[in-house]
Amino acid sequence: MELRHIRYFLAVHEAGSVNAAAARVHVAQPSLSRQLRQLEHDLGVELFDRSTGRLRLSAAGRALLPEARALMRAAEQITVAAEFHARGGLRHLTIAAPTVTLTDVVAPFVATLAPGDPTVDVLASDGEDIGDLLARGADLVITPEAPGPRFTRLRLAELPVWAYVTGAHHWAGRRWIAITELVDQPLVLVPPDFAARRALNSAVLDSGSNYTETIEAANGTLAQALAAARRGIAVVTDDPRFDLVPLAVRTDRSLLRIPLDMWWDSSHPGSRTLCGIAERLQHFITERYGLQSPIADSGQRRT
Questions:
Q1: Is 203 helix (H, G, I), strand (E, B) or coil?
Q2: Which CATH number fits domain 162-255: 3.40.50.2300, 2.40.50.140, 3.30.365.10, 3.40.190.10?
């Protein structure tokens, strides 16, 4: 068994087919198929059910998946540690976050980094498992979920969920709108796995209300474009586009917000550098958006 075979196994699982996995890992499809079969021979089990068009994990494959991910994380840690010690510091890091966060928060922050700072790469985490992201080399992960007990968290901010209307809308002069008023209007919403949609659904449920009319857009940018075209009110966390006017959304208890947490492995050899980058991003968000970010020593950070 070779380490690359484990990487191919995870790639096929994530991509759903050998062809897609081969493109992802830059290996010819026949070669990847042979090496996957070799791994199954070495382990003495079939990792995938091949009875349907899409490869699905077998019972053995599901049982071995966590171990495979852990093995790849361990290999990545060895590589990172070696690079860290060879270069005397962390020269490269990867931040995983939802696409809207990468676009509106992470990318503008990266533009402020100095030449001596690590080079930053990004991974879009939409619909991705945290374990998969870490196995693919993510050093810092922005997510409301807890990756595991060995991880450290820093609360970056609590981002508002906005209801975007056109300048001609009769609500345009207001600063906020109640959730009960909002649901009576045609709404343009992002998919259910987006944090803004989950927060809104929860608030609507808590209020005892129901949506009157909704359109689902693929992402926040398209939602705002549809709002600009007067198809409804876009409810997203994205920065404003198309000259739309943002209104805060008020629930019975408070304004509707989404916690933005950054996590990293406390055993990472560059943990101190990662902590420094996370704290700088926290400060950047506070300065850019005028948001109040709870600091780590007030109980928001834990290991």
A1: helix
A2: 3.40.190.10
Please report, as a single letter, which amino acid is at residue 150: R
Q: Do domains 89-155+262-298 and 162-255 have the same CATH topology?
A: yes
Identify which of 13, 12, 10 has the alpha carbon closest to the alpha carbon of residue 137.
Answer: 10
- pLDDT reported for residue 253: 77
Look at the domain 3-67 and name its fold.
Arc Repressor Mutant, subunit A (1.10.10)
Question: Which residue in 99, 148, 156 sits closest to 123, CA to CA?
Answer: 99
What pLDDT score was predicted for residue 7? 87
φ/ψ of 169, rounded to 5, equals -70, 145
Task: Give me the pLDDT at residue 161, please.
Answer: 93
Kindly report the CA angle at 157 between 203 and 127, in degrees rounded to 5?
A: 65
Q: Which of 189-198, 210-219, 266-275 has the lowest mean pLDDT?
A: 266-275
- Cα torsion angle, 18, 20, 26, 28, sign: positive
Question: The dihedral of CA 124, 129, 130, 135: what is its sign?
Answer: negative
Please give the helix or strand (H or E) that residue 27 lies within, else none: none
d(CA 254, CA 81): 44
CA dist list (Å): 237 to 175, 219, 221, 253, 290: 16, 10, 10, 19, 15
CB distance 120 to 93 below 8 Å: yes
- Determine the topology of domain 89-155+262-298 in CATH: D-Maltodextrin-Binding Protein; domain 2 (3.40.190)
CB neighbourhood size of 73 (10 A):
16
Token code pair at residue 261: 């947490």
Q: Parse the chain into domains and list their residue ranges.
A: 3-67, 89-155+262-298, 162-255
- Give the tens place of pLDDT for each residue, 175-212: 999 999 999 999 999 998 888 898 999 999 999 989 99
The pLDDT of residue 195 is 84
Give the whole-number percent of the chain exceeding pLDDT 90: 34
Predicted TM-score (pTM) of this structure: 0.60
